[in-house]
Amino acid sequence: MDLPEALVEDIEGGRCVAFVGSGFSVPAFFSWRRLLEILAGRVPDAARRAEVLALVEGESPSARNFEAAAQLVQDARQDAFEDDLRELFTPRWDALSEGMHRRLRWLRGIPFSAILTTNIDGLLRGETPRPDAYVPVLRPAGHRWWDERFWDGDRPEGPRTIKLHGDIDQGDFVFSRRDYRRRLYETPSYMTFLRAVFSTRTVLYMGFSFTDEYLNEVRSEVLSMLGHRSTERPIAYALVADVSPEIARYYAHHEGIEIIPFDTRGGTDFSGFDDFLQRLYERTNPRHLLGKLLAGRRLLWLDPNPPNNVFGERLLGEAAVEAGGECPIHRVDTWEEALARLGEQRFDLVITHWGHEAARDQKLSGSVAEKLLDEMHARRLRVPVVVFAAYAFADENKARALRAGAVAYTFSWSRLFQTIADIFRPGTETG
User: What is the predicted pLDDT for the residue at 362?
Assistant: First the structure.
């Protein structure tokens, strides 16, 4: 399957929200049918238990059947019902498959502006619907696709996540049709929030079946408001299994949704879901992209206090290895050592601290970075130099560094990594 370039652009531009449905979590938990069968087994009344099973069994029970069965089970279990769901939907991280760990890592590493999910399970941590959760999604301070939340740590925080149907740990979750009516009609801001997201963001649906009549109505309302035409850029995308070309054309022409299909080979192979997620991660995750750009490069890092840079060195080196290459980083303590190394070997980038150095006449103060840049210019050593320094006096020092020939002056890890990516990415601007 091909990745839509417009989708990649919207993700990198901070214009895309992921809408994650139950299909995402099924490998870690249960299908709707299996979940209701398990819950039915806990119903003490045999007649009610048989009623639930009659609704969910058979060749292809409808969404309405599942909704009715969910309501019956919830009524039958009453006070024990929340504990039932908490037990069934609390992930056992040590028992989670490697494939599910990868799926979560890919999802959290894609720089969506937000993730919305109807799942109540504990796989995706997030906030439940309320104003202080809505505001950062609808009125973001800014979108930085290279932000550390997408690459820092073994389990990056990832995009802000809103759990539309609640969370097993936080309570107030939606399971039955009665719960859903309460969320819709007793919390007016919920629907207002969805309308705002659907009308201002590109939505990527994953693990979502489009059987939710309320959400379908909101989509239709937004589609009508925008006056969308089939010749225009899609307002949404959907990763869907085993969809026919006819259905895909219908959604493109009449729903404003570009279907991204994958083949399950008769409903037994869902690897296409993960293949898509992995490819989207590799096209948009800042750490992965940086690693690919660094693979095969050689860096020189000037700083007399190497412990200051352990985090950055480790991340750059590991990113290159994960992308299938290596990025040797050579450390030096003085500008004289840096010049010597630059005269001996080829380097693709120099990173230097600012540093302070008294001038010979003791009347003017200079800096290590300026001295290095001046000497490199005098010796025609043409290697890009990035100054990585403290925030103090940044305005003054930045101007001096750029006048001396540095390509950038940075003081945060995020900006340093973005600058390095800009330097090595072909066909893009820097600065």
Answer: 43
